[in-house]
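A favour, since you know our structure tokens better than I do. It will help me judge whether the discrete encoding reads sensibly. The space below this message is yours for that.
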Amino acid sequence: MSEPLNFSTEAQNQLIEISNRFHNSDNQAEATTTSLKVAKYFQRNHRDVLRALRELECSADFSVRNFALTEYIDTQGKPRPMYEMTKNGFVFLVMGFTGKQAALFKESYIAAFDEMSDFIKSQNLTLISEFNKAVLQYERASDAASDAGRNLVLFGRKIKPLAAEKVAELERQLQPLLFDEEGQ
């Protein structure tokens, strides 16, 4: 069995640049690449990459957000077409490629996705645990408040009137004794 492929940081650095042409929802420049860099990295003719880009079956909205036709000057000083693309555009394009470099990218992309999924699951378990603790704390506090409310009702309806009646009765019994002692 062959050794697993690794889409290295060095390989990523050959492909990625920061462009002011594409901005995310926070209006920050996004990482981009060009069709020339893609052709070089995946060992393809640039014209084949351009054809693959023109033949992509993506929506017009996706295309506008992720691909920009521009030009570069070739070695003979002539302007030639080239595309700049966002990470999403790049992934959309490369997922259709075949060959060792494309397989390397796809495996790395899947591994990164799995790692992200595992992280989210671990965060969700932590979040679920925190949620369960909060629910338990809420239920205990709610039960304590309900008990306190029931005790207040019991006190107000039964205990307080009985205690007040008992105090009043004892007061009535004590008053004659107090007056008799004062009079003596």
